[in-house]
Amino acid sequence: MRRLKMIVSYDGTAYSGFQTQPHGNTIQDKLELAVKLLTGDTVKVVSSGRTDAGVHARGQVIHFDTESRIPAERWAIAMNSRLPDDIVVLEAQEVDQSFHARYSAKTKTYAYTINNNKFPDVMRRKQELHHPRPLDWEAMREALRHLEGEHDFTSFCSARSTQASHVRTIYRTRIDHLGDRHPDYQGVYRIFVTGNGFLYNMVRMIVGTLIEVGEGRRSSSEIPEILEARNPMHEKLTAMAHGLTLWEVRYDSGDGTAT
Amino acid sequence: MRRLKMIVSYDGTAYSGFQTQPHGNTIQDKLELAVKLLTGDTVKVVSSGRTDAGVHARGQVIHFDTESRIPAERWAIAMNSRLPDDIVVLEAQEVDQSFHARYSAKTKTYAYTINNNKFPDVMRRKQELHHPRPLDWEAMREALRHLEGEHDFTSFCSARSTQASHVRTIYRTRIDHLGDRHPDYQGVYRIFVTGNGFLYNMVRMIVGTLIEVGEGRRSSSEIPEILEARNPMHEKLTAMAHGLTLWEVRYDSGDGTAT
């Protein structure tokens, strides 16, 4: 039995999220079907973590076990020809049995993209939250910095969470104005958050709160109090799914990855 | 009666092209319907030129006449709230009756985007031609420069064309490697062609020929002979519609545009 690790990107627009569901059209289903079409085997695909309906991935990581002898370097093309065109395998490699897409992950980066222009960009409408009202991006950067470090993120987690611990560490945050480098992205901002793990709806609730700060309805200095309150923010603050992308998952060099 | 000029962008993926067709779901139909929903009037929308099924527009220009007294500056938002989300009016202004979206146009720029990476970009798959085999972009730039100037473009025009004259002028061409400015566009190239008008399938046949040059199956120095032959290239050279975008239409300052 071999274990394969793959990096997968997908446009989540047409799916009910990553994880298999009773009535759902999910990314996991499509990946498992592609493996079955390719090898004849039924496998269980394990991801670094589920993504919700409408959420995209630039670098989701999965693993599964297979008896197939197809060389690792041929898997990406073979999978892609059996996948719908909104799911693309970018890389495949054989890894040690000790590698686990979820448990071996050291950091995850999510990106949330906001188009702050008067009108949406028609080509990117499924990947950008359109927010035509002005936002104070400096205040938002300041608010975001207050979230760096180890905190109990109960305030930024769905009240329905059943996780034992809400303590997570955010290592790095950044807000880029994409228009600084590329004229087609004038007025488009991308919020990056890198951490050791994220609670249910955590990034979307953080972004919803940043938008309140950007609109001047909250001060960035309120963030430490909000964290300390350990009281889930109102659900309506959850920013829409389509602006969110699982950007990158990192594993350290000692994770059993055979290169 | 007032004449309104609008700049419209659209994702052509879901449409049978710009122009109204007997059984077609077209951009023109959607625009005329939005005007009807807004004003109650049936108008005829005139564009700078039709775009084919699957072709996009960043800056299509239209005009139509209306009795409505809605101020010009309120039209864009009013139209957008009545249009599907893959069509966006970016700008509206009142113009003189002498302005005509098609006949007053001085230059048009088309852009064709090619993703030359091993795998397609999942988010941009409907706007980029994926061409994984290596291309010689310098040879393609050279070939494209041979097309600048006034020429009879019969060789780069569908054999089905019924136009009286195939003489057109290409003022400027350019191929940008978008990855030079934006890391997310590594390996993605955009071909710009600006001219005083384009024949049916002209840009797509030019791009198909450039790809042959880029693959080394033709030399860039053959372009002058191809032009002189005035013999339509094979239809299969027509590059796929989805990589093409009507980028910009320009009118000169004496075109009756009231600003």
TrEMBL record, chains A, B:
<feature type="binding site">
    <location>
        <position position="110"/>
    </location>
    <ligand>
        <name>substrate</name>
    </ligand>
</feature>
<dbReference type="InterPro" id="IPR020097">
    <property type="entry name" value="PsdUridine_synth_TruA_a/b_dom"/>
</dbReference>
<comment type="function">
    <text>Formation of pseudouridine at positions 38, 39 and 40 in the anticodon stem and loop of transfer RNAs.</text>
</comment>
<protein>
    <recommendedName>
        <fullName>tRNA pseudouridine synthase A</fullName>
        <ecNumber>5.4.99.12</ecNumber>
    </recommendedName>
</protein>
<feature type="active site" description="Nucleophile">
    <location>
        <position position="52"/>
    </location>
</feature>
<keyword id="KW-0819">tRNA processing</keyword>
<dbReference type="InterPro" id="IPR020103">
    <property type="entry name" value="PsdUridine_synth_cat_dom_sf"/>
</dbReference>
<dbReference type="GO" id="GO:0160147">
    <property type="term" value="F:tRNA pseudouridine(38-40) synthase activity"/>
</dbReference>
<dbReference type="InterPro" id="IPR020095">
    <property type="entry name" value="PsdUridine_synth_TruA_C"/>
</dbReference>
<feature type="domain" description="Pseudouridine synthase I TruA alpha/beta">
    <location>
        <begin position="7"/>
        <end position="104"/>
    </location>
</feature>
<dbReference type="Pfam" id="PF01416">
    <property type="entry name" value="PseudoU_synth_1"/>
</dbReference>
<dbReference type="InterPro" id="IPR020094">
    <property type="entry name" value="TruA/RsuA/RluB/E/F_N"/>
</dbReference>
<feature type="domain" description="Pseudouridine synthase I TruA alpha/beta">
    <location>
        <begin position="143"/>
        <end position="252"/>
    </location>
</feature>
<dbReference type="InterPro" id="IPR001406">
    <property type="entry name" value="PsdUridine_synth_TruA"/>
</dbReference>
<keyword id="KW-0413">Isomerase</keyword>
<comment type="subunit">
    <text>Homodimer.</text>
</comment>
<comment type="similarity">
    <text>Belongs to the tRNA pseudouridine synthase TruA family.</text>
</comment>
